[in-house]
Each structure stands twice: as C-alpha cells, then as structure tokens.
Amino acid sequence: MKNAELIFVPAPVRGHLISMVELAKLLINRNESISVTILIMKFPYDAGVSSYMDSLSNDPIPRCSILEIPPSNSESYKSQSYHTMISTFIAGHFTNVKNEVIAMTQPDRSTRLAGFVLDIFCVSMVDIAKELNVPAYVYLTSGASYLGILLHLQAMTDYQNKDISEYQDSDAQLSVPYYKNLVPANVLPAICLDEKGSEVTLSWGRKLRETKGIIVNTFVELETYAVQSLVVDTTEIPLVYAVGPNLNLTSVGQDIDEAADVFTWLDEKPLSSVVFLCFGSYGSFLEDQVKEIALALEHSGHPFLWSLRPSGIDSNLNKYANLDDMLPPGFLERTSGTGKIIGWAPQVAVLSHRAVGGFVSHCGWNSILESVWFGVPVATWPLYAEQQLNAFEMVNELEMAVDISIDYDTFSKNTVIIEAKIIESKIRELMKDGSDIRNRVTEIQRKSRAAIAETGSSYNNLGRLIEDIIAA
Ligand SMILES: *[C@@H]1O[C@H](CO)[C@@H](O)[C@H](O)[C@H]1NC(C)=O
Ligand SMILES: *[C@@H]1O[C@H](CO)[C@@H](O)[C@H](O)[C@H]1NC(C)=O
Q1: Dihedral of CA 47/138/157/181: which sign?
Q2: From the first residue on, what is the mean pLDDT of each consecutive set of 10 residues in the chain (472 residues)?
Q3: Do domains 3-249+452-471 and 256-447 have the same CATH topology?
Q4: Taking Cα atoms as reference points, which of 432, 120, 90 lies closest to residue 273?
Q5: For 384-410, what is the HEC assignment?
Q6: From CA 304, how far away is CA 277, in angstroms rounded?
Q7: Torsion sign over Cα 400, 401, 405, 411
Q8: What's the confidence (pLDDT) of residue 195?
C-alpha cells in the first residue's frame, strides 16, 4: 500500500509555522507510512517565515517536502487590520493551493493523498478537501479553551441569534460551556468582536465544524475541563485530539552558545531566584509603562532578566539604542549587580535554566506550554490576540498563575498604565517559595512530561489520530 500523504497548510506566521513543522515531525517519526508536504505562503510582512524556510532546507526532514505556493493575485493589504489582512492574503492562494494538490493526486504518484492539516487561519480550505473527497483536520496552536470560545461565539450567533458585537467594550459576563467560571467579555479577543474580525471569527467557527477533527496543542491534564466539555458537547463538534505539549526544544544548546553572556550571568544566580520578563516577538510597552516596570523590579529586590524591545514587526529592531532614556534616571547603574536587560531573548533556553524562578509573560499559548514544561510559574501580562483569554484561563480556570493583569490590551484606548507598586507586589507573590501556585505548576510540569511519554494521554491521542488518518 502507498504511503499516506498529508498536505499541511500553515499560516504564514513564524510561530504557527514552527509549531506545524513540529507536528509534521511527530507524525512522521511515529509511523513510517506517513509523508507530509508543507505548503508555504510567503507573507510579505513576516520576514521570519523566509529565514525559517532557509533553515529547513539546510536540514531536511525525511518524508517531508516543502513547497512554496505563489499568490494568484498581488493585492496590497496594508489598509486592513492584521487579522483580516492575513485572511485576505490566504484567500488569495486558494486556487493555487487547489491546483497544486490536484496535481498530487495523479495515479503515477508514489503516495496517496490522505487529507489536509490546516492552520486555523486556513480553515476555509476545508472546501478544497471536500472537493477532492479527502478529510481535513485543523491544527490549533492555541489551547482547547480558545477553541471553545471560537465555537461558542459562532453558536451564539447562528443557533441563538445573538449579535456578538454587543460584547465589544462591554462588562458582561458570559456563560461558556467550556469554562468553569463566567468569562468576562473584556478578555475576549478584540479582533473577534469588531465588524470585520467577527466575520472572520464566525467563518472559522462554521468551517471548524465541517472538519474531520481538530488537533490541539494542549494536553488533557492541563485543560481537563475544557477538553472534556468539548468531547461531550452536543452541537456537532468534530473529534478533538489533544496531542501536546508539542514544543521545539532542539535549539536550546545552540541558543546557550549564542547568548553566552546571558547564561554566564544566570549561572551565577541562586536556584529559582531570577524573575524573567519576556513578551513575545511583537511585545512592547509605552515609555511610561517601561518606567513603572523598572521601578517595580528595582524595589522587589529580585534578580531580573528583562527582554525589553521597541515596537515594530521588523525583527531586526531588537534593541533600544537609547536604553537609558527609557528608564528611570540612574536605574541601570543601581541595578547593575542584580539585573540584566537584553533585546531578543532565547526564551526556551532561559526558562530551562535552574536560576529562573518566575516568568512575567504575555501569555502566548506557546509561552504558557514552555513555562509549564520547565515548571516556571507565570505572572500574566497579556498584550493582544487571544492572550487575555489565556491569562484569564491560567489565573481563574487553572489557578496556576499570578495576575498582574488579565485584560491589559496594547491596542485598546482604555488600557491604563499599571503602577510600579502593583507590579512589585505581584512579582513578590510570583517569586514566593512553596506557594500553592508554584506547587501546582510543579505538578502540571510532571504531567506535561508524562502526557507525551509512551502510553501518556497525548501519546495515545496521536496514535489514535494516525490510525484515523491511515484508515480513511
Ligand atoms: C526550532 O526553533 C528554532 C528557533 O527557536 C529554529 O531556529 C529551529 O530551526 C527550530 N528547529 C526545528 C527542527 O524546527
Ligand atoms: C502505522 O499505522 C498503521 C495503521 O494504523 C499500523 O498498522 C502500523 O502498525 C503503524 N506502524 C507503526 C510503526 O506504528
């Protein structure tokens, strides 16, 4: 019998792409009758995709090929919001993706087309799979709770005739079947509620229900309530496969070599003593907020490693030229013994270091999984996308994080500066030895490792997914 070939369609965003390549590797390594072709769309505003593709072609993965798909039109997307811009960009590739895959179904090919694995941004391509009469799966690089929100917003609109845009700037609390607690409307992703964004979100919800299954980068022991509620749901939700944590940990050694000064500095610090602040590829703050963070760190007395970066999508803009101007007068001098400010941070390698005892994070889903994997408690400081929802989940649903904020939003006019005094007290709470939160994180860390080990829950779910793919 011919190998089963899966077509992966990642969103053209570096983080999503890396996570999807990791999933391809998991599947390929688990069963030798699976091959993968990854279709790449090059988004002109994300340089990270090209550099990652180069690194892949230097280090090819067996039974995995990479194919670049050109757009069928060359529109300008600049005037739109990021969310709708990416969706429009992807829609512009629909025809070319379809033609490319049809070419792969020719009988002389050595593999047989077994189906699609789509990023959530590409879920509209479920229509191509239907036309070709093969199953489509979605791979969600966020958690099961977020999946629940996407489905619930759509269900409210389509089955209960509600207008979700009413939740914009609202202080309503929503009862969502996949959450134990009421969900405040102000932690729902803003992009899901405005006029254009809600169109995209609702179409995601509808298309998700047309897939054969949803693969989620989570594990049952972390999001037990959400995963179980999705399984027993009666509104026609496809099978959910929790296969995580699916992390790329291979670069740790290399990162340590490349940022030797950071790790020499960490090596000299006591066990679990350092607070690490890092806010993702696009995370930055206004100068007034930077100053409050600085004062809080200084007064907390804890050693700190702070990834402080200017705003802007350009990944070369890693560092402030005028760092001194951003910070309170004399700050760098006074903290030269206890603190270190860096630009880009090798986050995984830092979290793996024994000296790191707490992590102030923007709560991107990958960052949460990494903090869990290394057993480092988080203080939540969400900035955009679905990070507020992740922060809410960590603090209220899972009770495993300290809340600096759960509704901070870089792009909202209503967001107020968080004062140094508050940040300082939260950092003290985060760094406390033997706290309930720290104990819970240690317990979940153990479970995260067990989940992907042989006979663990995610290991078994991956096996079930492979059986379903091959049997189809
Ligand atoms: C893992 O991630 C790093 C970036 O942190 C990347 O350079 C590397 O290529 C990735 N490894 C694989 C095998 O995808
Ligand atoms: C690969 O999957 C097929 C179908 O589920 C199964 O029969 C076979 O044993 C698997 N191979 C391995 C190495 O697990």
Answers
A1: negative
A2: 93 89 96 95 78 83 92 68 80 92 87 96 96 97 96 95 90 96 94 80 95 98 97 90 93 89 97 96 88 97 94 59 88 95 93 98 97 98 95 98 94 88 98 97 98 97 96 82
A3: yes
A4: 432
A5: CCCHHHHHHHHHHHCCCEEECCCCCCC
A6: 8
A7: negative
A8: 75
Catalytic residue numbers? 16, 119
DSSP letters spanning 16-82? HHHHHHHHHHHHHHH-TTEEEEEEE---TT-HHHHHHHHHHHHSPPTTEEEEE---SS----TTS-H
Distance 31 CA to ligand 2 centre (A): 6
pLDDT reported for residue 76: 64
Atom of ligand 1 nearest to the CA of 255: 5
User: So what's the pLDDT on residue 158?
Assistant: 95
Cis bond leading into 245, ω under 30°? yes
Enumerate the domain spans of the chain.
3-249+452-471, 256-447
Q: What span, in angstroms and rounded, lies between the C-alpha atoms of 7 and 387?
A: 29
Ligand nearest to the CA of 251: 1
Q: What is the DSSP letter of 166?
A: G
What type of residue sits at position 135?
P
pTM (predicted TM-score): 0.94
Instruction: Report the CATH fold assignment for 3-249+452-471.
Output: Rossmann fold (3.40.50)
The pick from 8, 17, 18, 141 for probing ligand 1's pocket by mutation, whose C-beta has the most ligand atoms within 8 angstroms, reads: 18
- The CATH fold assigned to 256-447 is Rossmann fold (3.40.50)
Strand partners, 35: 5
